[in-house]
Amino acid sequence: MIRELIKGLGVTIKHVFRPRVTVQYPEVKREMPPRARWRHVLLRHEDGLERCIGCSLCAANCPARCIYVEAAENREGARYSPGERYAKIYEINMIRCIFCGYCQDACPVEAIILRPIYDISDDDREDFIYGKDRLIVPYPGG
Amino acid sequence: MGVTQAQQPGKARLLSEATRENISRIALNYDSAQSVVMPALYAAQEQLGYLPDQAIVEVAEILQLPPSEVGAVASFYTMYFRRPVGQHIISVCETLSCALRGAEGIMEHVRRKLNIKAGETTADGKFSLNSVECLGACDMAPVAMIDGEYYGNLTEEKVDEILMGLGL
Amino acid sequence: MIGEESGETQVTLTIDDRQVTVPNGTLILKAAEQLGIEIPVFCYHDKLKSIGACRMCIVDVEGLPKPVPSCATEVKEGMVVRTRTPEVAKMWEGVLEFLLVNHPLDCPVCDRGGECPLQDNTFKYGPRDSRFTGEKRHFAKPVPLSALVLLDRERCIMCTRCVRFCQEISGDEQLKIWDRGHGEYIDTFPGQTFDSNFSGNTIELCPVGALLSSVFRFRARPWEMKGAASICPHCGVGCNIRVDARNNREVVRFLSRENAEVDDGWLCDRGRFDSDFPNSGARLTKPLARKNGELTPVEWDEALDLVAEGLRRAAEAGPDQVGGLGSPWRTNEENYLLQKLFRTALGSNSLDFTFDGRGGGSDAIAEAFREGFFDGSISDTTTANVIFVLGSDISIDLPVVDLWLKKAVGRGAKLIYAYPTAVELAQHSQLFLPYAPGSEVELIEGLAASISAEEAAAHTGVPAELIAKAPQALMDARQTLVFVSGRLLEDEIGHRLLDALRRLRRAAASGEGQEMLVCAVFPDTNTQGAMDMGLLPGRYPGYRRIGDELAMQTIERTWLTQPASAPPMSGEQMLAAAAEGRMQAMYIMGLDPVSRPVGGEEIAEALSKVGFLVVADTFLTKTAELAHVVLPSCTFAEKDGTLTNTERRVQRIRPAMRIAGECRPDWVILSEIARRLGMEWSYGKAEDVFEEIARVTPQYAWLDYESIGEKGLQWRTG
């Protein structure tokens, strides 16, 4: 009986000295593989204009029906993207999203891309609907 | 409405009485108003040198046709000018036979000499340059029509000579 | 002529190894269509003359040295056509590759992307890649041709459908091809805007995304929309439309839904572009009740209780103290239930759909409808030899009928246009009679030759020699079609006018096989239906007189209670009573008389003296602002129902989008009020109401939702 106790404790002691597999999230964040596909971001052109043209093809391709786009026309003095059309409203419901990446597939202008950003947590369901404000990368130079 | 464009009050008429009479006389030779459009436009252009939109509207009024119809005809043919043109009009053919015989080079040469692009007029108002389709004189390609006269088998030297003759 | 079917001799030919027999003169394209063989087209359109411009439809015909355009080649006996050979496939591929030389690949931002013939044909028949490496041609994107129509010249493939529409259909010759060769572009005359009543049709005709609607632009992609087969709510023609709503939330556009009897596949600009109102943020979405002088949002139950209580109390004071106003913009079902509510629960016959005075004309017109005097249809314009328009500017009153008339003139029908001023259609007429307003009766007497041309001229101010031309034309015509303004008929002279028309009919239909058809012109959407449903003072549904024993018995069998036989008041009389403070309660449904440009203020003053005013409408109109209770109703895009157009055709509207806010269809609102007034109504859906309408309205007796179907049916007398 003592022998078994010592044997069990031995396993415990052995594991104490092994490297840890957990991290202290959220203080410590685990490095993701560079091609991990988590939350979406909307990209900009080098000159700062939005890449998204509001064509809704991502929404059409979305198997989870979690994307809502409303387009509008770029006007003199209010230009958001090159060309005529931009996305006035762009929303993704992160609770519905299955992170399949089909939106990225469908995008004709490479505006939407899934990035290794995985900390999608909140305490209100409403807050999981990400609008353009949270999806789009910041304007270069702020 | 576009069907009958009423004479705008206060706007002077461009076409003279003589031209109007001329057009009415020409119209007698034809069965339909459509057929009169081209000679009528020529008559108007003869008087004015070119065809401003107002002249087209007036021709349309005389012939009782929609202005758009007359305007579309005027815009189709290269020999109706919808903007003021120079004293001498140089039309270089660039269709197949001429193109094969070096029309591009001739055009480029004229362009350089006059320092204008096709469709433009020199600043002194002396020359207008046009690129046109087949002038029907392929036997002497490359060919140009200058002030209504045909000049064939053009070379750069020959062009210089002609332009010199016109006072360039 | 190409495309015109003689229909006499038949021709048998072979297309892709299958035989087909078609009338002589049929185009190869149409013969192939009969076999279900698809040939791609761009410039060809069924309603336009074929010009063979785009070359998309070229096919191989055995024995001919070169491929031929199937849209411009007629069939021949024994012809052998091939559309699915490698050679044809290569040619189609070539045509598409050429078209795509200049066509930009901006399908993701193009309104047409997803429902574009060029896109579809390229997918099916086009090349995989383009060999073109040069620069595509560039224009400003887009060019506004008018406030409503935009043109993206880069996308244009020069099929000229729009140009031909302006030439052949609307006749306004606004769009033309300008310049030549690779520089060609579509435009109006310099400095002019695309000013036409029908410009929107060119957008629908455009086989690419070159012509665009400024109202619809960027609003939705085709796969996000669901269309409901409905009826245009903007005039009495009742053009068939498809109401497209995005994600079931908002109406984004109206498209034509061809009905060969009503609209011939066209839609006017007023109808097409006024599509946004159901989405308006200004809509009423909650009932309002006046509390401490202010209209305050309340729950439905409270509002309906208030309405029922208010109406009940007023009716107790006397049936001549309550009145109801229906609307030419509400469905038959709703107008019917309004009068039923008043004639059963409230014992009142004071019902109308306007405050306008009618000077007794309404009785004459009601009698004419009851006896089936009006028998003309819009599509009779395709057969009539003489068309006579009296007192209506058709281009404004019934815009699409304008196109029918032009088409009739184009095929050789004689148009006699009688109107006080020279309106646009008068220019297309063979005989224009600019009479002095008020002299319509004498004018018709003159046309019927029952008075001399000189006498008619003296009354009407129309030169006698013009009037003298008409009788012969009418006498010679096998079929005469008359469009007569409903406003004139309702007017004081209505009675005499109808008599004059009867005399004209005797004159114009005196010979063997001759007939004269008459169609009344009502510019508002459902004026006809409102009258049919008994919103006329003195008439039950179906124009049967109040007090008519037989009518009362049949109605009682269905209503299970006797309809009111109290003396009726017209809208005008109700208004007068209200001004004197003699109206205890009024219920106004879908009508805003206070906003009228003339006389609105007097109406407002009179209505403000009504003891209890209920307004059911979609917006907080000026009339609604005076009400004690305001009930939010649904627009036509949120409900089922039927409308009856100016030619007495009953057509269905269907819900296109989800109901806004807490709105309810008026028939539901009225049912709720009736329930609170102790009536046992059990309508589960609009169709149930219509079934009852068919039981009590003789003209509608043979109609039901199924038989009305997609295309509508005209009601009949007897």
Entry keywords:
heterotrimer; A: alpha+beta; 3-stranded antiparallel beta sheet; two-stranded antiparallel sheet; 4 helices; 17% strand; C: 718 residues; Ubiquitin-like (UB roll); Alpha-Beta Plaits; 4 domains; 7-stranded mixed beta sheet; 5-stranded mixed beta sheet; 24 helices; 30 strands; 18% strand
Question: Can you summarize this structure?
Answer:
The complex is a heterotrimer of chains A (142), B (168) and C (718). Chain B has 168 residues and is α+β, with helices and mostly antiparallel strands. Chain B has helices at residues 17-27, 33-48, 53-63, 67-76, 96-100, 103-114, 156-165, and strands spanning 88-93, 127-132, 144-146, 149-151.
What layout of secondary structure does this protein have?
The complex is a heterotrimer of chains A (142), B (168) and C (718).
Chain A: H1 2-16, E1 40-42, H2 57-61, E2 67-73, E3 85-93, H3 102-106, E4 112-114, E5 129-130, H4 132-135
Antiparallel strand pairs in A: 1-4, 2-3, 3-5
Chain B: H1 17-27, H2 33-48, H3 53-63, H4 67-76, E1 88-93, H5 96-100, H6 103-114, E2 127-132, E3 144-146, E4 149-151, H7 156-165
Parallel strand pairs in B: 1-2
Antiparallel strand pairs in B: 1-3, 3-4
Helix pairs in contact in B: 1-2, 2-3, 3-4
Chain C: E1 10-15, E2 18-23, H1 28-34, E3 58-61, E4 68-69, E5 80-82, H2 86-102, H3 117-125, E6 143-144, E7 149-151, H4 161-169, E8 176-178, E9 185-187, H5 200-205, E10 211-213, E11 225-231, E12 240-246, E13 250-256, H6 269-273, E14 288-291, E15 294-297, H7 300-317, E16 322-325, H8 332-344, E17 351-352, H9 361-370, E18 386-390, H10 394-397, H11 399-410, E19 414-418, E20 431-433, H12 440-447, H13 453-460, H14 464-476, E21 479-485, H15 486-490, H16 494-508, E22 515-521, H17 527-532, E23 539-540, E24 544-545, H18 549-559, H19 571-579, E25 585-589, H20 600-607, E26 612-617, H21 622-625, E27 629-632, E28 641-644, E29 649-653, H22 666-676, H23 686-696, H24 705-708, E30 713-714
Parallel strand pairs in C: 1-5, 16-17, 16-25, 18-19, 18-21, 19-20, 21-22, 25-26, 26-27
Antiparallel strand pairs in C: 1-2, 3-4, 3-5, 6-7, 7-10, 8-9, 11-12, 12-13, 14-15, 14-27, 23-24, 28-29, 29-30
